[in-house]
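Good day; I would like, with your permission, to put a structural problem before you. A protein sequence and the structure tokens that stand for its backbone fold form the material at issue. I would ask you to consider whether the tokens describe a fold that such a sequence might reasonably adopt. I set the record out below, with my sincere thanks for your time.
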Amino acid sequence: MAKLKAVWALAAAVLTSTCAISVQADVKLPSIFGSGMVLQRDMAVPVWGWADAGEPVTVQFRDQTVSTQADDKGNWSVKLKPLALGEATALTVKGKNTVTYDNVLVGEVWVCSGQSNMQWSVNAALDPDLERKTANYPQIRLFQVPNVTATEPQKDVKAQWVVCSPQTVGNHTAVGYFFGRELHQILGVPVGVVQTAWGGTRAEAWTSPEMMAKTKELQPIIEGWNELVDSPKAAELLKNYEAALAKWTVNAEAARKAGKTPPNRPAMPEVQRNSRHHPSTLYNAMVSPLVPFAIRGAIWYQGESNASRAYQYRTLMPALIQSWRDVWGQGDFPFYQVQLANFRAVQANPVESDWAELREAQDLAKKALPNVDAVCITDIGAALDIHPKDKQNVGKRLARLALVDLYGMKDIVRQGPTFKSVSFEGNKAIVKFDTHGSALTSYYKDPLVGFALAGEDRKWSWATGKVVGADTVEVTVKGLDKPVAVRYNWADNPQGNLYSESYLPAYPFRTDDWAGITVNNVKP
């Protein structure tokens, strides 16, 4: 492990040296600024970067010219006044040198973050051939943050803006692209899609170190990592990794000399503080460098890796959102989540579910913070694949929230039915829904399924549901005379078929507050 540490130290020294040189060189901006970018309309737009200490810096865009002077550490920043839509033009930054970014548009900018289902590309989604063929959208611009970690907040990433086209769209986030495309087609404005997502990652890795440190309920996560990093198990895993890496190096070189394909490089064990799962490492490397680039909001598809600690997610998700809002300084910008899809085996009887509890935690986030919501996709998943290919409907459902909330399109149905209230009348549960302007129905008039009832004994049974009004479902179980609680689609892979007439699925819910199976899980 000593050799490994030496390599890391050398890499850190080179990086530090490189950064020091760049700060002392010509005027420079982070890579989130670049030719082909989209700047957020209708709000002040920060522009920032580095130069020599005391160097005068002037930023010019359209009819605005703003000047400042770099501080004693070489940092500078200005704000452009709110921008309106218009033709593509150049943004120029002048110090001792001049930096010019061409083909800059003004429109809507959205951050698209989370784990693999947000990282999932257009190439891997439904109809990739057709989607690429039709992706000629010169006013949609794409920016993809590379998958890297850091133990301290970083100021920049190696990435660049690209214009959306059949040649460029394939490797970018499918959910982000379909969401952005929907906004672009309906609003008729440029859209910037900023992808910062990494498969298999946990929400704590995307949360700022300050928020993790000050949130009492999240301390077990930090404690768990401290125990792991300092454990004999971690030392043994790293020792084995070094040995495997040395063997791989020899074999890979031999394969290359023989003209053969080298073997796969062994994966480094995720037991160090620079792990992609460690608290704040992805915030540091993949979020911090974007701040405070002006944005309209964020969309988020994650939770699979936190499902075993779903109750803790009730605190963790609002903490993550607030940590982003705190550093961005734009107030309570919209933050739209994607609830977990249906996944795993379908159960013959109602059982407890960590995925159901995680969906509930995602729903509770909107009650904890303003301008937060989630879309329901329990109808597009698959039992054997954690990555549903239908990312088109995910993007559309996210766009519905934004179009209604932010862009004033009240003639659009915002979302599927959500639970409103329940009353118990004898052996019946009378469930009321907020239908968001579209009456209840079952899927193509099939018999209604997905509901479960329980009595005082807390034993759940599948129930018979019947739509008895535009916003009302009557639920009964044969042999249960006095139900006290009702659940809908409370399962890993729910099969409920309650929809609105717009064919948007009803959201899972429960009326009980009985302790779930993840209530005591607090360490990773």
